[in-house]
Each structure stands twice: as structure tokens, then as C-alpha cells.
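Predict structure. Input: Acyl-CoA dehydrogenase, 386 residues.
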Amino acid sequence: MKFTPEHDALRKTVRDFVEKEINPYCDEWEAAGEFPIKDLFKKLGNLGLLGIQKPEAYGGMGLDYSYNLVAAEELGLALCGGVPLAIGVQTDMCTPALARFGSDELKREFLAPAIAGDRVGCIGVSEVDAGSDVAGIRTNARKDGDDYIINGSKMWITNSPKADFICLLANTSDDKPHRNKSLILVPTDTPGVSFSPHLNKLGMRSSETAQIFLDDVRVPQRNRIGAEGTGFMMQMMQFQEERMWGAANVIKALEACIDRTITYCRERRTFGQVLIDNQYIHFRLAELQTEVEALRALTYQACEQHIAGQDATRLASMAKLKAGRLGREVTDACLQFWGGNGYMWDNPVSRAFRDVRLVSIGGGADEIMLGIICKLMGILPSKRRD
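Output follows.
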């Protein structure tokens, strides 16, 4: 991928933001289990960083997805994964379908303030019994006059405790599973919307995550994004941007783990020599860096296909799969080289070890990525649920 001076300028803006507005507070936010999301999002909105590839008519920059990828990559330099995750939810998980298929009225009501940092969004897809199996969700929205009445629940929803709206996937008919779903924007102050206490997660501790309950929640049908029954298709399209964002966000996070480990191994002495002089260690670090470069190339190629209007599903799924597995490999190896210090809870490599584990689960588990790749390779039975 060829980057321009404009890409470089954006990269610097995001890097400076991470260094000044995120990293000095990560330890505090991790301990608290939350960060001041509305204050931080407003600062991001003021810089245009919540609408990089969104339409200019609604406050976005109107740039192509390569600029968003650059921002995701630089956010990987944050000293915690939870804050970048929350930002990615806003930019690449709960707003892509709205920006592409939403009515002008919905874009002005929800997208414009999300871009400005005035409203926080979340994506309501996963349920207790339907995580990666999106077709299996049970939340339903039945028509009542000009409204929908929504009942159900959503699980593991990042940003939800502070969110102003949910981009909710719900069953709106009795049609087959891939044709009966719609995306509906639900303001969180609507009667009948409630939340569980914060979920106690292994990693991503600074991001707020909860279960959402919907009990006879009434919203107007005009809050539906696009045509009824097209929600599954739209969500699959949103997943592609989410997966590319997630892969890009991992790249510099893993490089930072490697760099910190190199520094530590240059300082730590055992058996009369510094650790970095051990051939196994410096060969292994070189091998891991090579793998990160391979992930970068794969992610960039997927982005190029996406920008060109081609179907990037295969490469985006591969990048997502590779990011999750490589994330585990790099952080595990680096933690081992830190020895007992690596096992300490507040060690940055230990934190990365916990945070990156989500990449193989969220946005479609590794097994789902493998299924998609196999299908596109023609080595999976074609008979599926309609």
C-alpha cells in the first residue's frame, strides 16, 4: 500500500493523541475498569478522528478506508487494549451500516453526533446463546403501528454502560434466519432498556462491557437502517471493516511487545550474560517480527481490495484469523522472556497477553474465520441455512 503525506500527517495526529491523552492514564483506567469515554470521544471528535472515512455531509473527513487503517494501527500504541477497542466500536462496528445504508434523517440524528463525539454508540449483536452464530439470535422486534416493540437481550456489549444508542440486530419476521433480521437504532434512554453491572473480563479492563436487556422497548420503524430483512447482510458487511480494523490495531501493539522485550532482554543478565545474547531469544524475536510484517502485508492487501470495491471477505477473514493467533504467540513468547516479571499483573506485556486474547473471539471466532475461508476456497459443503 502506498501512503501519502496526508496518511503520514494523520498517523502523527493519532500517535500524538495516544501519547498525550491515553497513555498517561492507562494504569488508572485499567484499575478503575472504565475511562471517561465521553470526554475522550469529544476530544477525538474535535480532531475528526471518529469520522475519518465517514461522509463529509455529516461531519466526516470523507477519506478512503486506508486512512482509517492508519488510525487503527497507531491506536495500537496505547498501553491498554480497552480504550482502542471502545474507539473501534464507535468507528468501525456500530456506524458503518448507518453511514452506508441509513436514511438522511437517521444519519443526522445518530451518525453526525457520533462523528462529533457527542454521542457514544455500541453494537448489539451477540447474545448469551448466539455469539459468532449471528443467524441464531433470538431478540425480536414486532410491528405495532408505526413502531417496533423489541424484546430480548444482548451480551458482552462494549461501550454499552455509557452508550447513547445501540445499533441492534433483531429478528423482524418469521422468514429464514439470513432473511429475517434488521438493524435498528435504539436510544438507550428508551423505556425498557436496562443494563447489567459491568462484566468482569480477563482483559480489556478499561473498556466498559455489560449485558443489555430489552423489555417491550418501543422505537419507531423509521429507526431501521435500510430495508427490513437486510440486517444480516449489513452486519456481515460491518464485520469486514471490524475485522480489518482489529487486525490493523494489533500490528503495532505486537511490535511494541517485541520492542519492550528487546529492551528488557538487553538489561537483564543471567548466567553472566545479557538475555538478548542468547541465540534462541534473539532468533525468536526476529521470527516474531517477521510474522508481524506478514500480518501487516495481509491486512494492507485486504484494505486495498476493500477500497477498490472488491469483496475483501477472504483476506479480511485471513487477517483477522492471523491477528488473533499471532497475538497469542507474540505475547506468550515475550512474557516468557520476561520471566517472573512478565507474570506480574501490571507488566505491559502481561496486559497485552490478556487484552489480545479477545481478538480470536470477538467479531467472529477463529473457527468462524476458518469456516469462511474454507467456503471461499470451495472445500466446505455448500449446503447452509438460508
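The beta strands are 121-124, 140-144, 147-158, 165-171, 181-187, 193-195, 209-220, 224-225, 269-270, 273-274.
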